[in-house]
Protein 1
Amino acid sequence: MGDQSIKATTDEESHNRFVRHILDDIKALDLMLERGLIESGITRIGAEQEFCLINENWRPAKTSEQILKAVNDPHFTTEIARYNLEINLDPLELTGDCFSVAEQDLRELLNKAVDAAKKYNTHILLTGILPTIAKSELVFDYMAPNPRYSILNEMMRKHRGDDFQLRIRGIDELSIMHDSVLFEACNTSFQMHLQREADDFIPSYNWAQAISGPVLGVSTNSPLLLGRELWSETRIALFQQSIDTRTSSYALKDQQARVTFGDSWASGTAADFFKNEIARYRVLFSKEIESNSLDELEKGNIPKLQALNTHNGSIYRWNRPCYGVGNGKPHLRIENRYIPSGPTILDEMANFAFWVGLMMGRPKAFDDMHNAMDFNDAKSNFIKAARTGKESVLYWNGRLMSVRDLVTRELLPLAHTGLGKANIDKEDKDRLLNVIEERAHKVTGAQWSIRKYRNLRKTKQRDDALLALTQSMYNHQFVGNPVHEWPIDEDSSHIHDSAHLICHIMSTQLFTVNEKDLADLAIKIMKWHNIHHLPVENDSGDLCGILTFTHIDRFEETNEITENMRVSDIMTRDIFTTSLDTPIQEAISLMKANEIGCLPVTQDDHLVGIVTIADLRKFDND
């Protein structure tokens, strides 16, 4: 979706013209494979680094356009949200010190981003999901002002025919409707590319699928979303659901998610793989193609297969097959899309070396994956690793193994062998794979985040704990130590002053009653839990009143409450409410002016939180 000329497929003529180009691209790829034109005899690696922009209060910063302009470097590009950017590293030949070179290149580019960000009071952070992202930062105002993102949103909504629904269950549960694809912006990843030989592409791709579970399990770094503890790698569920074009109906039918691990081992050639993608997935986008790929091929030129690549870019496989042209030569590569950003550059490069080493060290027994491993075991391993990370038990070679044991006993030796075959410098190989081994025995980024967050929650409210967690990530990130060496119990600085909106401090785990409930039940609930303000909802879930100790005391003093009296008989209907994006100081002024002790927080008339005068005292400047 990086192409500025991409447009929605609205008129039939341009759509059909684009589809014809896709079909010609596939035929051209078939011919290039038959003629042996795909580059061989060399292996290259590449990577894409996505990162978050945060302000001085550790929250998302809408400064991507300014920073991109200040950096003025073609390696940088926008992402869907105004608080994310991406770096595209130059490809390197897989040999010698290539990982050290890639690491140095990435550090230099990130330092350029750091310097540019300082001009706009912005920090950069490497993390799979930014802990401090709130629902208020997932609205259109935060979408990057680039037509291709609006097109993505438009076409995804059109094909879904309804709002997007997120439902992710972990330790906590997140269930929410959303009117755009911007939840996808919560995901930041470190995407890794490996060039493969044409005649070995399908076995390589299947092996990439097979190792996805354990590689992800030891690399997870995204356990929190909107303050909820969800999956160890919540990005996996979030990405699929945030751009899911499938519809619900009373009919039981199989539908292909556009974010997918797949349903079977691949077979045939790379062209056959792409043919399957064309058959399974509707074309969402189009663009004007300047030259026909078959014509270019017959002229002796190498076609870019622009139509095929555009369609392939709208299918988000966790292991994505890619066709490209570099220095006039066509190549095939596999893109690993499931590894999260962070926690440090060193952790990312260790993940990179581990994955590439495994890819290069594939045992001969796995050349024919159809007979070596059941596909559903590989898929199950991936899902389990996403859910529970390093704490998962996976199925490998006919037996159950923990991620730790599978990585340290089976896979690390293969990675060492694979990097050795690629003539990677021993010092680099040992340095990076040692990080994986230590992390397997200690903690991943996800485990560190959860332990740190739970530790903070012992003394802090949810928002303050998320802020302190983010600040701690930032403080450790560029020191150089990998995440398994980060301390969990160090003191955190005082950070509550960074809260400036009601959504940052409101209580969200609420007791509520229905207006038809017995008044005596509501009063008992308030007394049992020492609740001074109890919101009242109607049958539609809308806020319709509130009960307060002061109001109830007046009824009890006069013995006016009977055993059949309903909540609606004693509740206060004249209530003041506020919204998620109300400034804290404005809320304080409202409560003082009207002499009220609490403010329910609503969104579309639905209660989402409550804030009391006690919550606001530390922010009161008077």
Protein 2
Amino acid sequence: MNKHYQPALPQTGWAGLQENWRSDLRSGLLVFLLALPLCLGIAVASGFPPSAGIITAIVGGVFVSRISGSYLTINGPAAGLIVVVLAAVQALGQGDAPAGYRYTLAAIVVASVLQIMMGFFKLGRWGAFFPASVVHGMLAAIGLIIIATQSHVMLGVTPQPGGLLSVIAQIPHSLLAMNTETVLISFLGLEIMLVWPLLKSRIPAPLIVVLIGALFAWHFGLDRQTMLGGAGYLVAIPDNFWAGFAFPDFSKINTPAFWEAVLSISLVGSLESLLSAAAVDKLDPYKRASDLDRDLTAVGIGNLVCGLIGGLPMIAEIVRSSANIDNGAKTAWANCFHGLLLLLCVVLLPGLIQHIPLASLAVLLAYTGFRLASPDAFARVKLIGNEQLLMFVVTIIGVLVVDLLTGVMLGIIVKLAINLLRGVWPGNLFKIHFTIEQQDDDTLVIKLLGSALFSNFLPLKQALTTVAAGKTIIFDFTGGYLIDHTVMEFIHDFSLNYEAQGGLCRQTGLALQTFSDHALAARLMTADDRK
């Protein structure tokens, strides 16, 4: 059999619905069961009403799936946006949470306009400008913040308002004042999240967590109690779903805090969405490539709708998208089905949702936070090279001590400084030199000259999109100086995708030095001919 054989691509549009509705509906149902508790938990952790997360998932599934440039991604609220949205609610509301919610909706509307413009002007490719270790450091810091904030909910205590350091400092007080019934629900939830995947069940673990949590909450009578600090123990959504809609307040549009929220939501949301959509393409069994600019535009339009009616910002979410693929989805109709099922659930069965304990949702988020910031995450970055670990740690510290945007910028500055210290000429930091030569009818030689870096390789990436399929591409590094990890990873991923379409990719040039044993580590090729 031809090693490049690909199964017939599923049809799209209405023809795709007729062809694949069974598999897409089945996957949409399972993703709905996974998404329901996560959307509720993300909304609560973000300082929004629980129904806001459901609104976003419905808009992302029913509407955005029809106009997006991807095939199998699930659009909805994500844990990675909790930190920026909560910070916006607190900064804009200044102690008035409902007002902060409405001000943040206005920031989401403005941020969505920026996203739409980025997609329209085809700026989606600039997501590659951010080094992978900086992005992972940002996500790890977000994971640590999620764990710190949700630990209080898992203990059944509402902390006093304050910054991150204040929230962490109050953990001992929450331990002393904890509600034993809530702690039991949290402990059982954590045990389920750890053990359930070992059973290989198709039923999502988060669904089991909330069902068991609701059973124990009913047994303990938590619906009749009030958490220390004034909040309730159970999810509070209105009986009438439409009553959960809210509208933005633009009265703080002239304040620095408003525009900081806009930039944070736009940057983090766009970056996460682009990275998730690209990651989902790698998992697609049909190796289809998303139109990232169209996808970013669609997400921006979806966020505009969400901001106008009371929802959270959305991204192309990787966990639910992975589950979508694992459950046999073929087209974007699976995303649409998951949104329709969420709509039916909140319209017809709001009473069931109102019995879900907040502690169970906190468990799901804390587990997600641990996956983002686990020791394995540090080990994976260390394996690529010590300089990657330095960027990773600097980004984490910057996010935790100052804010998210500052942390990302510090990580990028460290990366640029490392490249200069390794001998890259300043003029080469943001400008790449390469040639594309036709060796024969079926062979192209791409010769890299000087340094190829995260900060300059976008022209190379753009040039490769114009190469016809089915040829032999030779990446010639013999005239190169420093090839960094981001470029090595890009060439690796490009080669896999190109070969999946019937082509062939090879590399020539022996490195004088690699900065770790990792196959895609940064490498020095030669001390000569630097450009």
